[in-house]
Amino acid sequence: MEELKSPPPCPATVTVRRNPPRRARPPPTPSSAVPRSLFLDSPQVPIKVDFPLFPNQDITPIELPSSAPSPNPKKLDSESLKVFLRIRPLNIATKGSKAKQYGGQEMKNAWPRNPKTKNVQRKVKRSSEICVVVKDSNSVTVSPPESLQESKRVKSEVFEGFSHVFSDEASQSEVYEKMVHTLVEDFLKGKSGMLAALGPSGSGKTHTVFGCARDPGMVPQALHQIFAQHESCGNQLTRNFCLSMFEICSENGKSERIFDLLREGNEVFLQQSTIKGLEELVINDALQAESLIACGMLRRATAATNSNSQSSRSQCIINISCISKNTDGQFDEYPKKASLTIVDLAGAEREKKTGNQGLRMVESYFINNTSMVFGLCLRSLLEHQKHPKRPIQKHFQNSLLTRYLREYLEGKKRMALILTVKPGEDDYLETSYLLKQASPYTQIKFTNTEEVGTGKHMKRPIPNLPMAEHQKRMKLSAVESCSVTFSVLNSILKPYTSAASTHKILLKRQTEEISRLKKEDNHSNLKEITVESDESLSRQVKDGSSLEEAHIEFEKKDRQHQIMTNFAKALWIVLKEYREKLEIAEKEVCCLRDDLTYERKRSSDLEAQVKDLKTKRPLGEVASTEVNISSVAASSTELDSAQQEHMPGHATFCMLENVAEVTEDSKDIQAVEIYLDNGATVSIASYVGAKNICEGAVGASGSVGYLQVHKDSKEGHTVSNTRKLSGIERDSRDNTCVEIESDDPESAASCLESSANENEICCSSVEKESALSFADVSDSVCSSPLSPVETADCSSAVKIDQMPQAVVQSHDCSSTLKIDQMPQQQCQKEPDPTVAVVPDDNALLARDSHCSTGAEAAHSLPTCSSQNKQKPKRRLQPVSSNLLKDIGNLGVIDEKEKPKGVKGAEGLETRSKGSLSLLRLLRNDVYR
Ligand SMILES: Nc1ncnc2c1ncn2[C@@H]1O[C@H](COP(=O)(O)OP(=O)(O)OP(=O)(O)O)[C@@H](O)[C@H]1O
C-alpha cells in the first residue's frame, strides 16, 4: 500500500489580506510598448518600458456610445473644449546649455535656497526616470516612481481624451498648427477665442506661449499668421488689429492688481469684464507686435525659484483684437470685433519643491489660488452641463483673472487649454495632480460659440446658450422652434423695422403737412415739393451709404415730433385746467347773481316790511316824531293849482296811502284814481312800488270821493270797483284814513294824512272852522319863529311855509296852525261831545288827549269853549281821539307799572320817554 502523504502543517499564524488583491499587470508586449516615434528618435530620453501600456489598439476599434467621451478627437473638435497636453523635455540643459544643472534641470535661481530642498536636489540628481509616457496622440500614461509604487501602492494612470498630446519632441510649429492655427482662422472670421496655458512652474507655459527668438511660441506665430492671411485677403476686407497686454499680480499677497504691460506698467482697473484704461495699440505687422510684446515681457514680474530660474510671478494676458472695415477704409455699419486672448498663467508651485520663502511664498499662494479658482470655474461649468438644474457656481468672482475671462469660463466663448507638464519622475505629483484636475475638462461642451457680430447696434446679442439649454431647446416642437426663430429674427430686425416705420411716419406727416398748407394757402407748387421730398427721402434711404445719415435725420425729426407732441399735451392739460377753473368761476358768478337777486328781493321785502311796520306804528310813538310837512305843503300847493277850478275857494289837502292795500294786489297796480262826487277827477295818486302805499292828494269841496285802482296784469287792464272814500273805514292796523265829510258845504273838512318815508302826518280839519288836526310823528316841535303851530296831540308847533297866513286851530283847541294861503280862515277846534260820553277808559283817555297839556292846554281851552257855541254839530271824529284810542288799546303802561313777571311783560310794548310822559299827562288829566 502506498503511504498517504499528509499535508504540510499549517503555520501558526495566518495573514489575511483585507484589501482587494491587486490586479495583475498585463505582460509587456511589443505592441504596448512606447511608440518608437515618440521616444526612440530622441537620444536624450532614456526609454524605460518596465511597465506595460494600455492596450490602446485593441480598444480603439470599439465604437463607444456618443454620450461617453469619444476618443476620436475629430468628433470632439466641433463641440468639446480643446485641451492639449504638452510634455516638456526632461533635460533641456542638454540642448547646448552650459549652465549648472541639477539632475538635468537648468538652475538659474539666484534666490537663497531652502535647506529643506536638499533632499529634493538629491532626488533630482539621481532621478532619471520619467513619469509621463505618451500613450497616443490623445492620451498619456502617468506612472508614479517606484518608491511610491512600493510604499503607497500608487498605480499608473492613463489620462485620455486630450485634443492632442505633444511629446517633448514636439516643436513649436507643430504645436501651433494643431492647437492655434484653427483658433486664429476662426478669429479672422470674427470668432473670439482664448488659449490658456496651465501647468506647474517650469513646465514650459511661457515657453509655449511666447517661445524665444529662435523658437517662437504661439503668440509670434499667431501674429505671423494673422498678418499673412490679412495680406492674402487683398482689398476685399480691411481689418484693424489692436494689441493689448497686461498682467495680474498680487500685492504682498493681499490684493490683486492689474498693470498695463504696453504702457510702462501703468496700473489699470477691471470693471465688470472690461479693463478700463488699458492701452490698445494698433499693430500693422507681426514684427511690430512682436517688439511690443517683447517690451511687455520685460516689464512682466518674474523671479527665480528652485523650479524655474525665470519663473513668472503674474498672470499674463495678451489680447489681439480685430475690427473689420470696408474696402473704402470705413468701418462697417455693424463692425465685427473679435478678440484672440492668450493667457500665460503663473505655474502652480509646491512649497517643498520651489523652496520659496517670504514674499515668494506669498506669491505662490496667490498663484496657486488663481489656478485653483480657474479650475473651479471650469469644473463648475462642467457640473452645470452635466446637471443643467444646478446653476453655475460663481467662482469667477474670486479672482480678477476669472472675472476677466468670465464669458469663456461660462462656456459662452470658444476656449482652448494647453497643459504643460514636466515628465520627470520627481514631477509626478504635480503632473498627476494637473492631469487629474484637467482631464475632465475635455467633456466641456461649447454649443454656440459663433459671434456673428458685436456691432454697436446689437442691443440684444444672440445669447450663447450652454449645451443643456441647447438640448432643451431642441426638444421644442417645430412650431415653437419657428416662433423662437421668429423672435430672434425680430430682435435682429428690430432696428431696421423701427427705422423703416419711422421713415414711413415721417413721410406721412410731411405729406399731410404739405397738403394742409396747400389747403390753407392754396399753393399750386406744393405737389412738386411733396414729390421731390418723397423722392429725396426715398433716394436717401435706398442709398446704402447714406443710410446712417437718413437714420440720424429720422431720429432727429422723430425726436422733434415727440417734443412737440409732449409740449402740445402739456399745453392741452394746462388749457383744460383753465377751462375747468373758468367753468367753476362762471358757476360762482351765477350763484352770486342769484344771491344778489335774492338779496335785492329780500332787501325790498325788508324795506316794504319796514315801511309796513312804520305805517302800523302806534300814534303814541308817532306823536313823538318830528314833523316834516314840507312835502305835504308842496303837494297841497300843486293840488291847489291843479284843482282850482274844481275846488274853488277851498284849500283841500288829502294825502292818501294804503288806499288800495285792503282790497287790491299791489303788484299790478298802475294807477289809483280818485273821483269826486262833483264829477271831476281830482287826482291820480302816485303809487309807490310794492308797498301798497298810494300817495296823492284829493281835494273835494265837501263832497265824497271815490277811488278806483287801475291795474295792468296778464289779463289786461282792469279797473277795480269804485270805492267810496268817505266810507273808508279806518283800518285798525294803521292810522291811515281819509275822511272827507262836512255838514257845511262851505267849510270843507279835510283830512290830511301824510306819510313820508319816516314821517307820518294826519290832519283832519273842517274847512269852515279851519280846524286842522295834525298828528305829529316826529318829535313834538317843528320850530318856526314866524308862526307857531300847535299840534292837536302833542302841542307841537308846526310851521307850514306855504301857508304863512293861515292859522289853524285844532279841534281840541290845543294847536294852532298858521297857513299862509288861508288868510281868512281860522280853525278853532272844539271839544268833541261824542268823545266825552265815551264810557271806557280809552274814550276818556281819548277825550282828555284832545286837550293840550300844561299851561298851553289851559290857555287854549277858553278859546275853544267860546267858539263851540257858534259852531255846528260835527260828526267828524278827530284823529287825536283815534290816536288815544289806539294808545289805550295797545295797553301802554308806565315804566313804574311794568309787571315784574316775565309773562306779564310779554306782548307789551315799551314806550319812549316822550310817549310815556304824554300818557302820564293824559291820565292825570283824565283822573283829575
Ligand atoms: N518644450 C520645450 N523645449 C525646450 N525648452 C523648454 C521647453 N519647455 C520649457 N522649456 C524651458 O524650460 C524652462 C522653463 O520654462 P518656462 O519658463 O516656460 O516654464 P513656466 O511653466 O513658464 O514656468 P513658470 O510658471 O514658473 O513661469 C525655460 O528655460 C524654457 O526654455
UniProtKB/TrEMBL annotation:
Gene Ontology BP, a term: microtubule-based movement
Cited PROSITE patterns: KINESIN_MOTOR_1 (PS00411), KINESIN_MOTOR_2 (PS50067)
Composition-biased stretches (Pro residues): 1-11
A Pfam family this chain is assigned to: Kinesin
Domain Kinesin motor: 80-444
Gene Ontology CC, one term: microtubule
Cited InterPro entries: Kinesin-like_fam, Kinesin_motor_CS, Kinesin_motor_dom, Kinesin_motor_dom_sf, P-loop_NTPase
Residues that hold ATP according to the record: G199, P200, S201, G202, S203, G204, K205, T206
Keywords linked to the UniProt accession: ATP-binding, Microtubule, Motor protein, Nucleotide-binding
Region (Disordered): 1-39, 856-878
GO molecular function, one term: microtubule binding
Family per record: Belongs to the TRAFAC class myosin-kinesin ATPase superfamily. Kinesin family.
Protein name: Kinesin-like protein
